[in-house]
Structures are given as structure tokens and as C-alpha cells.
Amino acid sequence: LYAENSSKQYITTSTFNDNIWHHIGFTWNSGVLKVYVDNIEQTVTKAYDFDFTSIFNGSAISILGMYSNLIIPFNGQISNAQIWNRALTAEEIAAIYSKGRGGF
User: Fold this and answer.
1) Is the pLDDT of residue 104 over 50?
2) H or E element at residue 2
3) CA distance 17 to 51
4) Eight-state DSSP code of residue 3
5) Beta bridge partners of 25
6) How far apart, in whole angstroms, are the C-alpha atoms of residue 10 and residue 57?
7) What is the dihedral of CA 41, 47, 49, 53, to 10 degrees?
8) Percent of the chain with pLDDT over 90
9) CA angle, corner 56, sides to 44 and 87, nearest 5?
10) What string of DSSP letters covers 10-79?
11) Pairwise CA distance, residues 26 & 88, whole Å
């Protein structure tokens, strides 16, 4: 996820080179980022500061599926992307994950 004029970057060590479907969910609540891969919460490291507010209030260009410098695109498919107006709970993330691949 990239936001124009951002000043934070978060990284996780998850890799996806296995040609199978994965569910990725994340929440941002009170300055805390949580990332879930296949319903397992990941360890996230803050590389540098960033204000996610600009992504969700429409004040910045945001890109899903491409590295922030716009030269390394995500090589895969993204389906059923959802953006909510609140942070989902771990249980809600699990419920979405349990619905499966949605026909993909």
C-alpha cells in the first residue's frame, strides 16, 4: 500500500512465491497497524514514519499492489479488495478469511 507524500513504511517478512491463493488483511487503529496473512497476525516492523490518515480521508493518492517508487509492480492478481470505515477486529478478519477464495 502506497500513499503519496507519505513518511512511514511498514514491512513484514511474509513472502508469496508459491502460486496459491492468500488472504491478506490489515487494520489501522489509533496508530497501530496489524497485518494478517491467511488469518495469522504477522510481525510488522516500522521502517520509517507514515500517517495512514491521508490514505483514508482522500487527501493522498493511494496505490495497492505496487512498490512506492512505482517501478516494481505486484506480479499477481488481487480480487475482492475491501476498504472499511473502521478497523475490523481479529474475529471479523477471520470471518472474511473463512469465506475462502470467492470463486478464484
Assistant:
1) no
2) strand 2-3
3) 30
4) E
5) 36
6) 20
7) -40
8) 14
9) 55
10) EE------SSS---EEEEEETTEEEEEETTEEPP-EEEE---THHHHTTSS-EESSB-TTSSSB--S---
11) 8
What gap in Å lies between CA 92 and CA 103, rounded to an integer?
20
Tell me the C-alpha distance between 104 and 92, whole Å: 21
For range 51-67, the mean pLDDT: 56
Res 91 pLDDT > 70: yes
Task: Give the span between the Cα atoms of 6 and 64, in whole angstroms.
Answer: 14
**Amino acid, res. 2:** Y
What 3-state DSSP class applies to 94?
helix
pLDDT at 68 over 80: no
Place of cell 516500522: 46
